[in-house]
């Protein structure tokens, strides 16, 4: 038997070099990924700030001539908030209940598997197809006309799979021990879900809903087909064409005048700010409800 | 009020796999009964059949009869939820509800089973925490989250939560396996105190613990891998540890197993 001599070696040159190279590549990849993000934000902020004033936030485009300066996006901001709000009201209850079924009741059954499959299929629906569906069904067949609500339906079709998937993942993360602890106290299953499982997963579910909202807030194609376009304020989402911020940007950017292009940039800036504000609110809610915080 | 449990010819399955077979035993009220045996012999499975927690696992089912005093736990018209209210359980790993404070954790069973007045809740929470020997350590921070306590404190919190709903029987599935010796001692003291009021059944891998805390001991074993676990013998703890009837029991408790 040969005796092995244990000598502790320094890190070899080859490994050091490899380490440096891979580190460099990771940083490079990160930098490349950040370039478009930063440049988009930079462009939108610098171009958008020109018209980001009180008039823009409080006035519509009614009676603003094609070459006039001034005007604003109040009607579009209002429309976006109403359409996205309605879409959230439709898709969050349905999505959350679907996720609860998939995790707590379905568990591998045939129905649960087919629901899972169709949720995956829905994830892949192009947004314009959702818009076409609502246009064909709601606007043309039922003859209910363009409205903010029709747009909300189209947006909720797009939100639903995101909400289901994220809520499902969060519910699966809740340790089974907590459910068992609750059952062992003689708590019925539905109450266990309501009072133990959902509060534990709450933060994650809110984050998922916010991501879904951020995703649909910028959708243009489905709104173009269902909400149409208007220059006036229409605060009733159930009747007549409305405006939305993405539509506003689309509409203004098409016009040849520099005044319109400026409004388009400011509209884009407003949209980004709204999404960021919603995210901030979600963070605050999660922080306020965080489980392991001494209150 | 403590109750007696009478099990006759009980089998439990996970899908088509039979985990335990033909178990018959009587568990006396106001006493501690310990289940010992090698891993995988079905002690925990059997424990979970005693409050119908076994059937929570998909595909799991039970054959046989368990009488709590004179009621069959598996009777056709018996609600498993009411069984679990009567037969409480403490788990291997402490599992306080992370979204709830210490107070809310103890009050959880009562709150989730119907409204109670605040003063009534406060009284029950205090007495449960006192029974669990935890009151002095947490009385100044009842509003802090339960997950901030140490492992041993969390386990006593779970015991307080289980006894707050005043069950007749308390099942404990290796309650000390995740704890240090000092916390283990605290919980063993607690078990000896609680047996004056409850029927206690404890699964343990620690034979010294079984010898210290229990009045009766049941030894479970399985014939081989994939075979169902069986009850080998059950007797006074002192007899099991000094003069067991079965050879397998003697081999196991003296460490000459397999």
Automatic annotation (TrEMBL), chain A:
Transmembrane spans: 21-45, 84-103, 115-140, 146-164, 196-217, 264-285
One Pfam family from the record: BPD_transp_1
PROSITE patterns: ABC_TM1 (PS50928)
Leader peptide range in chain numbering: none
Function: Part of the binding-protein-dependent transport system for phosphate; probably responsible for the translocation of the substrate across the membrane.
Entry GO MF terms: phosphate transmembrane transporter activity
UniProt record, GO biological process: phosphate ion transmembrane transport
Classification lineage: Bacteria, Bacillati, Actinomycetota, Actinomycetes, Streptosporangiales
Keywords assigned by UniProt, alphabetized: Cell membrane, Membrane, Phosphate transport, Transmembrane, Transmembrane helix, Transport
Cellular component, GO, one term: plasma membrane
Entry protein name: Phosphate transport system permease protein PstA
TrEMBL record, chain B:
Keyword Nucleotide-binding included in the entry's annotation: yes
A Pfam family the protein falls into: ABC_tran
Listed InterPro entries: AAA+_ATPase, ABC_transporter-like_ATP-bd, ABC_transporter-like_CS, P-loop_NTPase, PstB-like
Alphabetic keyword roster: ATP-binding, Nucleotide-binding, Translocase, Transport
Record SUPFAM superfamilies: P-loop containing nucleoside triphosphate hydrolases
A single GO cellular-component term on record: membrane
Origin: domain of life: Bacteria
One GO MF term: phosphate transmembrane transporter activity
GO biological process, one term: phosphate ion transmembrane transport
Domain ABC transporter: 5-247
Protein name per its UniProtKB record: Phosphate import ATP-binding protein PstB
Protein source organism: Sphaerisporangium melleum
Gene: pstB
